[in-house]
Amino acid sequence: DDKTPMVAVVRCQGGREQTRSLFKYDGVSDCRSAQLVCSGSKSCNFGCLGHGSCAKACPFGAISMNANGLPMIDEGKCTACGICVNTCPRGIITLIPITQELFLGCVNPDTGPLVRRICEVGCIGCSLCVKKNPAGTNGISMEGGLPMVHYDKLTSWPEANSVCPRKCYVTREGASVRD
After folding, report:
1. Has residue 41 got a pLDDT over 70?
2. What is the set of domains in the chain, with CATH numbers?
3. Res 173: pLDDT
4. CA–CA separation, 55 vs 149, rounded Å?
5. How many Å apart are CA 142 and CA 9, to the nearest integer?
């Protein structure tokens, strides 16, 4: 019965600058609608679609879209109600314990060569983080092609991105994604 407060985080760093578009989408500016058209215009089938449905759905004004087309969570306003989690058709917004400083900023389980072709910052599943994190395989393990941070064993690892060749880890310091 853990009562640790939670906070929403964005597990995608592939904005307009890092992930190419497959086509120009001229439909309703809504992520769910865009997802219905050929699974969205982004080359990554798992990344943020960038239409801000999460920001529009948040009743607390805790989410805004940055210039790169990615959601930014204002942790001071976030109540971890989960509405954004349920609104995102790609499942890139998740709730994590507020005590957790480190999380993986990618949900794409595809193989490294495919991820490299579609996103400049996506996780390639190299597993270096599993081998080199301070808690060993107890802190991070590979699950379905992606590293899984075990929050009960590894809450902080400031050096994560010095190990990760793609700099896929996000350290929560007010901003959840790259500008």
Report:
1. yes
2. 6-171 (3.30.70.20)
3. 65
4. 26
5. 20
